[in-house]
Amino acid sequence: MTPEPVPLLRVENLQVHFPVYSGVIAQKEVGRVRAVDGVSFSVMPGETLGLVGESGCGKSTTGLALLRMLEPTGGQIVFEGTDITRFDRKQMLPIRRRMQMVYQDPFGSLNPRMTVADIVGEPLDVHRIGDSGARRAKVLDLLSTVGLTKEMAGRYPHEFSGGQRQRIAIARALAVEPALLICDEPVSALDVSIQAQVVNLLQDLQARMGIGTIFIAHDLAVVRHISDRIAVMYLGQIVEIAKRETLYARPLHPYTQALLSAIPIPSPAIEAARPRQIVTGEVPSALNPPSGCRFHTRCPVAMARCKTEIPALTALGDGQAVSCHLHPG
Predict the structure, then answer these.
(1) Which residues contact 131 (CB under 8 A, 6 or more apart)?
(2) Whole-angstrom Cα distance, residue 316 to residue 329?
(3) Cα–Cα distance between 28 and 263 in angstroms, integer?
(4) Sequence-ordered list of residues with C-beta below 8 angstroms from that of 287, at least 6 positions apart, any chain
(5) Cα–Cα distance measured from residue 164 to residue 177, given in angstroms and rounded to the nearest whole number
(6) Fewer Cβ atoms within 10 Å of its own Cβ: the N or the C terminal residue of the chain?
(7) pLDDT in tens, 2-35
C-alpha cells in the first residue's frame, strides 16, 4: 500500500485575537479583535495554496502567525511533523530557515542602507551558512536565478523598479533554501505587466525547487493562475476550500460566488449577459462579529438558522469543503 502523504504544514483551529483595553491608568480589557478565529488547512510539499478574501479578513495575520511573528491565541501549527505553536525565539531560529516570507511592499521590506548583495546575503549571515566567499557566490547565483545580473549586487534598493525590488525580496527568501514560502500579496503593489512577470517567476522557482507556497492575495485572477488549491476567508474564518478547477467551476458558498462574479471578463457581450451576485452592506467588525454564520448579515440567501447556528466547514468530496447551511454534507 502507498503510504499517506504527509503535509508540509498542518494548521488546526488557529486563532489570533488582539485584546482591546479601556482606561488611562487602570486599563481593563473590554473586548477582543478576532482577527483569525478557527482557521484549519494543510499544505503539501510543492503545493501552492491560495488564500483569498477582502481586506481585513485575516489573511496577512494568518501568514504572520504561521511564522510566529504574531503569537497565536489558540490552535496548532505543525510544520514538517513538529508542533511549533509554542516554540520560543531560540527554538524558532532553525525553523525560520525552513519558512520564509515575501512581503507586499517591495520597497518597505528592503533596508535602504544595504546593498543588494548585503540584503540577499543577510539570511546566510544570520544562519551562519558557508564562509564569506561561498556566501558571495551564493548571492550572485540567487540574483541570476531571479533574473537579475551580478552587476546589480552593489546597488541600493532605490535604484530599482518595483518589480526588480520584489525579485530581490524573493532572492533573499530563497537564500536559505526554505521548504515553505509565504507570499503576502507580493504583486498587489506592482503594475499588471510586472505582476505577470513576478507570478511566472514564482511558478518557475516552485516547479524547480519543489517549495510549498501559501499565496495570499485578493486578486482572484492572479490566484487562479498560480494556485493548486484555494481557501476563501471571510472575517477571520475559512468559508470554502477546494481545488482551483473545482472552485472556479462550482463555487458553493454565497461569498465565494460573489467574489467570482466580480472578476471582469474581457468580452463586453459576455460581461453584460452574465448574472451578477451583489453583496450589500459592510464587513462587520472583528471586535463584535455576528452570531451564527458571519456572512449572514450580507448573504442574499440567508435563512433563519444562519443567524444563530455556526455552520461547520464540511467536506463534500473531491477536496472541496464549505461552511454553509445550504450544503450540510
Answers:
(1) none
(2) 6
(3) 44
(4) 20, 31, 32, 33, 34
(5) 20
(6) N
(7) 566 789 999 999 999 999 988 777 788 889 999 9
Residue 64 grid cell? 504572520
The alpha carbon torsion through 37, 230, 214, 262 (nearest 10 deg) reads -90
The letter for the amino acid at 209 is M
Residue 62: its H or E element: helix 59-66
With cell 459592510, the residue in question is 282
Distance, in Å, from the CA atom of 29 to the CA atom of 135, rounded to the nearest integer, reads: 48
Model pLDDT for residues 46-68, shown as the tens digit of each residue: 999 999 998 889 999 999 999 99
What strands, in cross-sheet order, belong to the sheet with 48-52?
99-102, 180-184, 212-217, 48-52, 229-234, 237-243, 320-322, 314-317
Which set of grid coordinates corresponds to residue 211? 517549495
Give, as one character, the DSSP assignment of residue 290: P
Is 130 exposed, middle or buried (CB count within 10 Å of its CB: 0-12, 13-18, 19+)?
middle
- Of 217, 193, 195, 197, nearest to 205 by C-alpha is 197
Give mean pLDDT, residues 150-179.
Answer: 93
- Predicted TM-score (pTM) of the model is 0.91
Nearest to 322 by CA among 293, 300, 283, 289: 293
* Residue 232 to residue 102: CA distance in whole angstroms: 20
Distance CA 173, CA 178 (A): 8
For residue 57, CA distances in Å to 33, 128, 234 come to: 12, 37, 5
User: What is d(CA 92, CA 143) in angstroms, rounded to the nearest whole number?
Assistant: 27
